[in-house]
Amino acid sequence: MIKITTEIIVKKISSAQIFDWIMHLTPEKYRQWDPNAHVGKIKRPAVLKVGDKVWFEEIIDEYKVSFNWKIKILDNPNLLLMKATIPFPVYLQLSFIPVDSDTKVIHEIRIGFRFLGLEKIIDWFIALFIMPPKKISAIKRHAIEEFKNLEQIL
């Protein structure tokens, strides 16, 4: 399994503020969050609950990210876990950890199966064709930018 983990400190914003903002994300807020990457396309229920599906589109450098996601865990204000609704396992987990008056955001993408013996072959394939180092760098840079932007928005 490939894990892409990025840790971001969002200064003077609580985990509850970040969680609540994401739970009530509108297309306008989505564009504001990262005007360069978020093309403004997002479909979701007004209030999220476990089992709901959301769709959003991002352009991260030259990479287009456009998935339907199913909400697996909502643990207010600590954790949001989503799984892409494709046959291949792709998870996006956002953890929000209070650190004094700041919040540490852990943005983690997990890709791949857990098959003993086959995992290395599948990971090699993913790294070669789906997640090359350049794309991983772009995703990490994007995660930092979008969450640091919340310091100005919230």
Structure description:
The protein is α+β, with helices and mostly antiparallel strands and 154 residues long. It is built from four helices and seven strands, in the order E-H-H-E-E-E-E-E-E-H-H. It has helices spanning 15-23, 27-33, 119-130, 133-153; strands spanning 2-10, 38-43, 53-60, 63-75, 79-84, 90-99, 102-111. Strands 1-7-6-5-4-3-2 form a seven-stranded antiparallel sheet. The longest helix has 21 residues, at 133-153. 15% of the residues are buried. The model has no long low-confidence stretch (mean pLDDT 93).
Give the N-to-C terminal Cα separation. Answer: 35 Å
Total count of strands = 7
**Uncertain regions: pLDDT < 50 for 5+ in a row?**
none
Overall pLDDT score: 93
Strand content: 35-45%
Query: Sheet with the most strands?
Result: 7 strands, antiparallel
Layout of helices and strands, plus pairs?
Elements: E1 2-10, H1 15-23, H2 27-33, E2 38-43, E3 53-60, E4 63-75, E5 79-84, E6 90-99, E7 102-111, H3 119-130, H4 133-153
Antiparallel strand pairs: 1-7, 2-3, 3-4, 4-5, 5-6, 6-7
Structure described in brief:
The chain is of the alpha+beta class.
Give the tags.
154 residues; 7 strands; alpha+beta; 40% strand
